[in-house]
Amino acid sequence: MGFELRINAPAKLNLHLELLGKRADGYHELETVMLAIDRHDVLEIARQPEPTVDLVDAGWIPHRRMWTDRGIDAELPPASDNLVCRALERFRDGFGIRGGFRVRLQKAIPAAAGLGGASSDAAKALVGAARLHGLDHHRTGLRKLAGEIGSDVPFFLDTDRTFAALATGRGEVLRPLPVGGRLWFVVSYPPAGLSTGVVYARSQVPVRPRSVAPLIDALARGNLQQLAKSLFNRLQEPATMLCPWVDRLLARLRAVAPLAVMMSGSGSACFALFPDRRTAVRGAKRMQGMQDGISFVAATACGG
Ligand code: C5P
């Protein structure tokens, strides 16, 4: 049986991530700049009369061997833990839908990487379900559901139009940001993931937070030199303590001569900023020579 809808769910990079405080509910108040990139999972959805949400197929693109051969644990969580299923169940209950959904998920975004793969899949599941049920206009309802599923999820609702955003609160309060030119990166993922909660638990809120203003300005102007100087991630230090791969990966990326390197989100993936497509492709080729982990070229999802 076919599917009614096929949606791309993009990955993100955090160009800036600062902690502003620890909240009573255990979350951190933060300030982060998220950028959607052109690496994406593929989600297919169809409605069904039965009220269940069935993940009928989940796998890796191009194939699982490509990941496991490079030391990556390519186990996907059981359907009951999959954020896509949780998102669709909440959608069904929240909007009082009678039937359920069938879903197929093909992953190209590594998991536990700080690239937002699971959050993006969940957001696009909500977008797809809303489209199939003619509920796209329920922006506030969808945003609320998205925020309940995960802090990063709301950002991905609008990545077709908003490629970059400043996220505050616990990550769910969004302000779209202008992007002055297409940015080129090499993204590398080591053969070890990191749990977001564990990295946050090891983090420290600084006395004087780093300002995001220079990065926002550099992004708007497409000023690569200033952007390179402004990349920042407060979670890089605790992630490095938890996973020695992060430092190793950053050093390898630095050796291929980008403008700057940084870890994304709560890790363990890291990225390098390059001046243009040609240098990024060359950098990725050198990184792909590594026996373990994966590296790929990525650009801003669109625009510029
Ligand atoms: O929201 P999400 O489920 O993605 O968060 C996973 C974990 O990361 C949370 O349980 C919390 O420990 C931590 N977190 C945090 N502050 C945030 C976002 C996440 O402490 N702003």
Question: What would you say about this model in short?
Answer:
The chain is an alpha+beta fold and 304 residues long.
Write structural notes for this entry.
With 304 residues, the chain is an alpha+beta fold. Helix content is 33%, strand content 29%. The chain has helices at 64-68, 83-94, 117-132, 139-149, 153-157, 196-202, 213-221, 224-230, 236-242, 245-254, 277-288, and strands spanning 5-22, 28-48, 53-60, 100-107, 164-168, 173-176, 184-189, 232-233, 260-263, 270-274, 294-299. Strand 1 (5-22) and strand 2 form a beta hairpin. Helix 2 (83-94) packs parallel to helix 3. Bound molecules: cytidine-5'-monophosphate. Cytidine-5'-monophosphate (C5P) binds at residues 26-28, 30, 150-152, 170-171, 196-197, 200. Cytidine-5'-monophosphate binds at residues 26-28, 30, 150-152, 170-171, 196-197, 200.
Main pleated sheet: 7 strands, mixed
| Overall spatial form | globular
Bound molecules: cytidine-5'-monophosphate
H-E order: EEEHHEHHHEEEHHHEHHEEHE
Total count of helical runs of at least 4 residues: 11
Top keywords for this entry?
304 residues; alpha+beta; 7-stranded mixed β-sheet; 4-stranded antiparallel β-sheet; 11 helices; 11 strands; globular; binds cytidine-5'-monophosphate
